[in-house]
Amino acid sequence: MSDDEPLAIAYERHDRVALLLDTIRYVLEERSLSAEGWDDPQCRGPGMYLVVVSGRSVAEHADPLGDNRWPVEESRDVLADPGAFAAAAERVAYECDGTGVVSVDGVVQERMVRFRDPPSPGGEYADWMGTRHMSALDTSRRDTVIAALTLSQESGRVTVFRDGTYDSVEREAIAARWRAD
Fold this sequence. Notes:
The protein has three helices and seven strands, in the order αββαββαβββ. It is of the alpha+beta class.
């Protein structure tokens, strides 16, 4: 459905979806700022990859990733209880691999997945990008993907990918204007 159709919803400009994306981004930033040891090359911080989708299913371009699951019994809806979402995200960031899938209504799917490469992956990858970030960049180009968000377990960088572009904030710059240090 295109934007010029009367019943089309432009999710990328929808207020509730913007709140959803902001909430997820803030939780990732908080995970980054609360973790310690980022300067230690032997330390592995929390890592996360979440995708916000508008379609009914990601089955045509994603596969379940083993037994990795989002703890839906603790947090099923991002916006219904952001505190519960943050607590679940903390656990997932350290214990699970794969991509969490969130519908535009804020519901988190239980299965963690691995997105397959799009038919024509592309774009320029930045030097700092690992496989999680390259996948997020490519995945963000899919029609049903509103945004992909990552937290780098190597550096604490938080990145929002949309339509093959990205806005990335290094850990040191997260909330820098509000920090007293």
